Amino acid sequence: MMEGIIYRKLRVEEAKKFWEMKNELDKETKFMMYEPGEREEKAMNLQEIKSGIQNAIEDQDFLIVAEWKEQIVGYLSAERGIPNRIKHTAYVVTGIREGYRGRGIGKELFKRLDLWARENHVTRLELTVICNNNIAKNLYEKNGFVVEGVKKNSMIIDGEYVDEFYMAKIVDEK
């Protein structure tokens, strides 16, 4: 576990700082949704980011960051299902900056997600992970996620189709 890491909710006024961290993360790995620079090409919609932060502040959704010396070095978000039939579910996205991986940050982020899920009656957590992203898959499995299926030709990376695993975790409300 890395000493000095602070785990906290974002403040609405940090929307641009959060967007910038995600933009840097896109440059460090091929395992995120956006290609390097693609997030920059899209009009940065700060209002959308602020809305997501506000939803997490109000516990409708989950968003927590890991901070080291006032720099955001990782995050985990879980967006709750909106229709009544899936309000008990949340879709999880996580990212940790390259220089901070393997230091227990992911484990701590998932521990806090589990607590939020229990407190907010979210009993199913879902995510996808590129099949050859063994480090992330192992992190998810260590935190109780299991593979439920394969999403064939899910993404194109470097001109090649790649598959993703559908993974989920049933959260015990106790």
The helix/strand class is alpha+beta
Net shape: globular
Largest sheet: 7 strands, mixed
How many strand elements?
7
How many DSSP H or I helices? Answer: 5
Radius of gyration: 16 Å
Q: Helical amount among residues, as a percent range?
A: 25-40%
Unreliable stretches, pLDDT < 50, 5 or more residues?
none
Overview of this protein structure:
- By secondary structure, this protein is an alpha+beta fold.
- It is built from 5 helices and 7 strands.
- It has helices spanning 15-28, 38-41, 46-57, 105-119, 134-142; strands spanning 6-8, 62-68, 71-80, 89-96, 124-130, 146-157, 160-170.
- The protein has a 7-stranded mixed beta sheet with strand order 1-2-3-4-5-7-6, with helices on both faces.
- The longest helix has 15 residues, at 105-119.
- The two termini are 26 Å apart.
- The model has no long low-confidence stretch (mean pLDDT 90).
What is the secondary structure topology, with strand pairs?
Layout: E1 6-8, H1 15-28, H2 38-41, H3 46-57, E2 62-68, E3 71-80, E4 89-96, H4 105-119, E5 124-130, H5 134-142, E6 146-157, E7 160-170
Keywords:
5 helices; 7 strands; 33% strand; 174 residues; alpha+beta
Entry summary:
With 174 residues, this protein is an alpha+beta fold. The chain has helices at 15-28, 38-41, 46-57, 105-119, 134-142, and strands at 6-8, 62-68, 71-80, 89-96, 124-130, 146-157, 160-170.
